[in-house]
Amino acid sequence: LCCDEAATNIIEHAYGGESSNPVTVTTISQSNAFIIQLHDEGNSFDPNAVPQPKTPDGSESISAKAIERLQIGGLGIHFMRNLMDDVQFQFDANSGNTLTLIKYINQEKAA
Known about the structure:
The protein starts with a helix and ends with a helix. Strand 1 and strand 2 (33-40) form a beta hairpin. The chain has helices at residues 2-14, 75-83, 107-110; strands at residues 23-29, 33-40, 86-92, 96-104. By secondary structure, the protein is an alpha+beta fold. Strands 1-2-4-3 form a 4-stranded antiparallel sheet, with helices on one face. It is built from 3 helices and 4 strands, in the order αββαββα. Helix 1 (2-14) packs antiparallel against helix 2. It is 23% helix and 28% strand. The chain is globular.
């Protein structure tokens, strides 16, 4: 879900809807973590400027009941930040943008 949201955001926002531009996806499996990196050469953005998703009246936190009434914007980053253990954004004017999504593997559950 997080990888899909990230790729959609890259196509829509970094590339302005042009899906023919490159997005490089790298996966790394370590003993204690699974890492997904998405790299693009599109426009960068400030992830801290993306507002938390809100219901139209702003009175509810995001719950199963409220999800149908959410206003558009910020939900993808919200999912990434809440479903992954670490989310890192890197922007470089020369080499492009890299988003790193990390999910740590609980060794006790795997045993």
